[in-house]
Specification:
Two copies of one chain form a homodimer. The first copy, chain A, is α+β, with helices and mostly antiparallel strands and 203 residues long. The first copy, chain A, has six helices and ten strands.
């Protein structure tokens, strides 16, 4: 298994450059295509499980630890967990010490669209110089506060604007953005919905 | 308008305690009910717009700034932006300098379920002592890598486990968790889907 992984992800995992890689948009395209070949020969390594653990810290504050995940046929862990804090602004009865959950959702979408776009552009040899994007979503508290059953709890809609610096014709700018929306795991999850199951137990 | 806001959010905004507030789970329940009354009399103040701006930093790295939002009838801003970084682990061709987008999505869900649960429990006078939760979601890269059109790009499913410390009967633990799933904006967004529109322009 480990040999397959090494084949798949090459010098990224081995830490040794065996040849000068083709890098587009900062992405090692050789490794990307080697990954694709490895998945074709061993489909199971494509299955990933991502995880977080969260702990409540009173009122609107809580903190997630991000570390272990399962991917490429093995358990993977970071040397140190990434810690993500959440809070609410004062107007939503918090202490405003961190971004709030629905802002984190926009960040997840922005980050995933950007990375998906950049990776898939790299695979096609499309060089991108700069990317900036802005995101805005609408929430009506009549939903969350049980004041109107016709109003949903979540975002009613999200608007995304991408600005790209790339030496491509005007009409290709939209195609490049579509590489993001057409492949992004968060975009798919958020636009098409995901089944979420929950359990509860005593601590 | 500003007077209405002060009525609505009381001493949270004014910074002056006019009376000893009722605090449950760290949440000022007086302010929560005053907010609800204010929205009943001025429905427009319930409409919020949340925003982020993101900038690509090469390969899988990008960074969001979180600051201004619209809510309670006015533009609101923080003194300093919250900055959220994203990357991918080496096995996904990144430098593993930050949580990845689909891990941020789990954090958004965890944070929102926890806060929604705690707020709505507080409104009902249910005291919660501790909350811990864990989240796991499945992604098959056959989707993202265009290797199988039957495999979706996003999460195929997410499993949530809540552990609560509260002086309530066993059967009420699930009801408390349902206060989260039944009201959380991120849970609704993610399970039912959100329309996302996008535009592209030259930087």
């Amino acid at each position: 298994m480990f040999e397959k992984l090494n084949q798949a992800w090459g010098d990224t995992i081995m830490g040794t450059a065996l040849q000068v890689p083709t890098v587009v948009n900062g992405v090692n395209v050789d490794n990307l295509f080697t990954t694709i070949d490895a998945i074709k020969s061993t489909p199971a390594i494509a299955k990933f499980k991502f995880r977080i653990q969260n702990r409540w810290e009173g009122a609107a504050q809580n903190r997630s630890a991000v570390n272990e995940f399962h991917g490429a046929g093995q358990e993977c862990s970071r040397q140190k967990s990434f810690v993500l804090h959440a809070d609410e602004p004062a107007v939503l009865l918090g202490k405003d010490s961190a971004a709030n959950p629905v802002e984190y959702l926009l960040h997840a979408l922005a980050a995933c669209l950007t990375t998906s776009m950049v990776y898939h552009a790299a695979a096609r040899g499309i060089q991108i110089e700069e990317v900036e994007s802005s995101f805005e979503g609408d929430i009506d508290l009549h939903g969350f506060l049980d004041l109107d059953p016709k109003v949903r709890n979540g975002y009613q809609g999200i608007r995304v604007n991408f600005k790209l610096k790339a030496d491509v014709p005007e009409e290709q700018l939209r195609e490049i953005v579509k590489l993001g929306t057409g492949h992004s795991p968060v975009f798919d999850s958020l636009t098409n919905g995901v089944p979420v199951s929950d359990t509860a137990e005593r601590l």
